[in-house]
Amino acid sequence: MNYILKLTFFVVFISSTTNASSLTTGDKVFKAYCWGCHHQTSVAFGPSFEDIANKRTRGEIQGHIVSPKSTYKQLGHKRSVMPAF
Length: 85
What we know:
The chain is mainly α. The protein has five helices and no strands. It has one domain (2-9, 20-71). The longest helix has 14 residues, at 20-33.
């Protein structure tokens, strides 16, 4: 249940509404664009979803999604291959 709450927060943080439609949309966006590299608990190509959700603020997550090349150093990464969304 804790994972579901974190996932829901992560995928809809851009939206200020939390109705069923936006949750469904957020889940689809996460699965389409994020899940391939950011799995639930294990490191895939990028850090695990659990690691990101537990260590980053909302602003850090938003900034890195929008402009990873300008935020990767301040987040402690040596390089960034994540595309901007």
